[in-house]
Amino acid sequence: MRMNCTEVHKALYAFADGQLGAKSCVKVVSHIEACAACRHIVDEHRALRGAMGRDLERIPVPSGLQDKIRLAIAAERSSGPEVALDMAARSSDAGVTVPATFEQTSARAIFTIRRLAVAACVVVAVGAIWKYAIPHGSGPGQALASLTVKKHNHCCSHHATHHGAGIPRDHGQAAGAIDEHFDYAIRALAPDLTSHGFEFESANFCGIRAAGCTDGGHIIYVRSNGDGVTRFSVFSVPRREDVDHFGSGAVGEVTGPLTVPQGGDRPDVHVVMWRESGTNYFCCGNLDPNVLSQLTDEVRLAMQRPPTAALFAMLTGTPARP
Asked: What's the number of domains the chain is made of?
């Protein structure tokens, strides 16, 4: 069984450093061959490690450190301060040669400390890159993804009361009610996702711009299995200046999945977004990106559903049938 992104992330850096066993290594390789996002993380880590390694010998050793290491090693070997002091004195005497075996041990110790110093630099560098360079919270698309996830989390945490009054409990009828509520300025999408294990749970008038924003439609699906409860959101919001800057700007072109880290042990939430006509669409959930993409494809297919009678009348200018 192929590992998902959440599972693979726990092993990516060990894999990049060549520290995984054969069985785990095969599983990670199988995943990254099909996942560009995880493969990019591995390539980036290896490139950073390689760049730091090339500079390993250029890091200066503080003056006096070699003598201190010699003293410490001698003290440990002799378990007596007299021998340690004698060794330190001999090492500082230009006329006395320290035994080769001791010099080799000292060199190895210095090299180890140098590597530890480099490792500390790598940790700081990777942390800085992760926080500032990788676009978790930068760029228009990523900023919108963060807003979407914030609203998704808020609504899902109140799932018991999320469903709007007067909205039908059927996914198709709920989408029609959202269309009608906004006078057909947007086209809400709410397909049947039972083939993917997700059931329609609730619908309401929710935008993504703020906690109390109601300028859009929000459909929530839920899946319950042995791994717990997972919710998937579909937002349909009007195209506005402040929520219309992401991707290339091309109608129909999908942006994402974009990752929004949640911190701690909570799984990352991924977001896919695109625009069609007068509507911006945002799909998100704490799902494997491949699963999210499959669900998004189903949602996009819903755009091909026949319009409601009222929407048809509005589009064609003909009276709606009773």
From this structure: 1
